[in-house]
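ARCHIVE CARD
CATEGORY: sequence design from structure
SOURCE FIELD: tokenized fold
FIELD CONTENT:
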């Protein structure tokens, strides 16, 4: 094969004996002036903190023998010395014959490399035993300097493996592979015997304590790696993520063994919390997040092990929620059976029954989201709510059917609960699956309608004799309507609800139903308005009634201002004499309330006996055309006329 060139530019100059030990020293000096594989690591750092500069340290090491370099822990320099000897040896030898002649020299190189390897790997194995004192040490052979030297030696020997891989008698060192396996064993040993700190842990099972201690060890070690150890490695080593991967794999293996056992509910929850909350929280710490790709690590447990644990947890939570809600509802039933009347707080919109359950649901779903790491899964906890609202509805039906002395108070209190449930289900829809949301809202709407009917039907029954007078000639008499207002005000006092929002809605509905009853009686009135003067007077009276009705209900809590507008528009129709003006007014009314029908217009126009049949037909046709144009795609206000039957 002939003479080979030395990789550092050194060529055979009269054979190995010509240079002797001096030749190696000269070659080593030239090598040491070159940048190290870890240029920019701890060596550069030490040059700025009072330690000897790396170049001076290296030059001092030139005067040491290989054994002295090992003793002084100058591993990188020792590696360079071996490299120089090896390059010179293999660079001047021919293939097999020459190599055989220098077997002793080759064996000596291999033996020295093994000695260096042993010390380098021992240093790597002690990486995570660094203390604050070691980190801040300014000694020439500080632990960080030693580790940096060992790491540089590893990478330098990896380069030698590539350079002389064609030499059959030279076994590759594979130090990088040994480095990785050493760290893997190191991590496993630390997770097998983590440092314990039981202070502040409270009463935990042995399983929970083991998991906690492993997690704590993982966190402390990764922080040490990121804050300190990484300075001993070149950036391309990505040592922080490599350590994170080793800890992830080791922690995962330990948790897989734990997950294979049948766990009680507390241990199951604790394990899930570590997998989905605590462990991701460690990796997301600002000190670690920039150096560790947590997404690439994945979950600590595979899907096939996580799903049974999640099902166990969610089933337990659903059972707890169902039990709690059932107990709360049963307590209310017992109170009602004993004749108890719920005491309302006018300053608070929350009913205790709904408030307690809502708080419990919110807490359980929030916790479930954290424990399972999925809001969709956590929402499944609320499935029992559909059964609860059905039982709540049945309870309300019993209250209504038995109609005890305390039934009215309970129904008014229930309105607060219904309102609170509806508000939470609509506003915090992220707490509930869509099906649960739809089912509950439907049942709650039915309950509200039933409660309103129970509370208002007796009131309308009491007012019915006075409603009838609105359909006679007495409707134009002021005292008739004033008596009706007095009666309504008395009934309004009895309709006070504990919850403000529920009270407003109930009074608003009562306001609407009274207004509808007024319009219905007007459209059936027996007295006809023969001339302009009577129609003007009727308009004035109706506007006064509209104002009085609006003032009363507004004072009692109604927010339905639009009802006054309807009465005023109808009153305007009574006053107008010009057919086109009447057409415009009817079109305005029909546009605002598309549930206005021809039968309502006919009944209203019949009050004005001075309008011919043909004019009435023209007005109705105009309204019909407008309604056809506006009905499609129009979002109308609350229905009003559709609830008024006209004979």
């Amino acid at each position: 094969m002939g003479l080979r060139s030395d990789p550092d530019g050194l060529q055979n100059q009269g054979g190995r004996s010509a240079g002797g030990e001096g030749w190696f020293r000269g070659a080593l000096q030239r090598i040491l002036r070159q940048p190290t594989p870890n240029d920019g690591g701890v060596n550069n750092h030490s040059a700025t903190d009072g330690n000897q500069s790396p170049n001076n340290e290296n030059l001092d090491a030139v005067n040491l023998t290989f054994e002295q370099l090992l003793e002084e822990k100058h591993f990188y320099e020792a590696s360079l010395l071996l490299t120089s000897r090896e390059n010179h040896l293999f660079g001047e030898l021919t293939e097999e014959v020459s190599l055989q002649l220098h077997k002793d020299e080759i064996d000596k190189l291999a033996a020295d490399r093994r000695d260096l390897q042993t010390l380098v790997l021992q240093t790597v194995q002690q990486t995570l035993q660094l203390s604050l004192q070691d980190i801040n040490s300014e000694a020439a052979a500080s632990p960080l300097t030693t580790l940096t030297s060992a790491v540089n030696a590893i990478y330098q020997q990896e380069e030698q493996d590539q350079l002389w891989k064609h030499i059959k008698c030279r076994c590759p060192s594979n130090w990088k592979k040994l480095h990785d396996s050493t760290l893997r064993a190191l991590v496993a040993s630390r997770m097998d015997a983590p440092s314990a700190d039981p202070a502040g842990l409270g009463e935990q099972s042995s399983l929970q304590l083991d998991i906690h201690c492993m997690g704590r060890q993982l966190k402390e070690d990764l922080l040490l790696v990121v804050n300190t150890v990484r300075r001993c490695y070149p950036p391309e080593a990505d040592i922080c993520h490599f350590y994170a991967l080793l800890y992830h794999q080791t922690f995962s293996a330990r948790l897989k063994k734990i997950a294979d056992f049948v766990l009680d509910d507390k241990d199951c929850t604790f394990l899930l919390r570590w997998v989905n909350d605590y462990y991701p929280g460690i990796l997301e710490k600002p000190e670690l997040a920039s150096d560790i790709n947590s997404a690439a690590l994945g979950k600590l447990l595979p899907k096939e092990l996580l799903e049974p644990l999640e099902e166990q947890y969610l089933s337990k939570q659903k059972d707890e929620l169902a039990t709690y809600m059932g107990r709360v509802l049963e307590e209310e039933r017992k109170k009602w059976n004993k004749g108890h009347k719920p005491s309302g707080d006018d300053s608070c919109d929350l009913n205790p029954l709904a408030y307690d359950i809502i708080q419990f649901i919110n807490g359980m779903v929030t916790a479930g989201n954290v424990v399972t790491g999925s809001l969709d899964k956590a929402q499944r906890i609320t499935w029992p709510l559909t059964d609860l609202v059905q039982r709540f509805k049945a309870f309300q039906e019993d209250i209504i059917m038995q109609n005890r002395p305390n039934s009215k108070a309970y129904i008014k209190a229930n309105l607060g609960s219904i309102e609170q449930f509806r508000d939470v289900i609509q506003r915090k829809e992220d707490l509930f699956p869509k099906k649960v949301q739809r089912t509950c809202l439907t049942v709650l709407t039915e309950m509200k309608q039933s409660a309103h009917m129970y509370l208002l039907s007796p009131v309308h029954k009491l007012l019915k004799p006075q409603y009838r007078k609105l359909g006679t000639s007495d409707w134009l008499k002021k005292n008739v309507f004033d008596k009706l207002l007095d009666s309504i005000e008395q009934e309004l006092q009895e309709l006070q609800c504990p919850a403000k929002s529920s009270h407003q809605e109930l009074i608003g509905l009562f306001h609407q139903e009274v207004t509808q009853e007024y319009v219905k009686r007007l459209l059936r009135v027996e007295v006809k308005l023969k001339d302009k003067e009577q129609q003007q007077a009727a308009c004035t009276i109706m506007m006064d009634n509209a104002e009085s009705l609006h003032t009363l209900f507004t004072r009692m809590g109604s927010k339905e201002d639009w009802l006054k507008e309807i009465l005023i528009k109808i009153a305007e129709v009574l006053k107008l004499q010009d057919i086109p003006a009447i057409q415009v007014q009817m079109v305005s009314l029909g546009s605002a309330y598309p549930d206005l029908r021809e039968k309502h217009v006919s009944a209203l126009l019949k009050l004005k006996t001075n309008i011919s049949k043909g004019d009435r037909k023209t007005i109705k046709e105009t309204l019909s055309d407008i309604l056809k144009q506006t009905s499609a795609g129009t979002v109308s206000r609350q229905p009003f006329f559709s609830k008024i039957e006209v004979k």
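CARD ANNOTATION: The radius of gyration is 45 Å. Residues 16-189 form one domain.
SHELF: design records, drawer C
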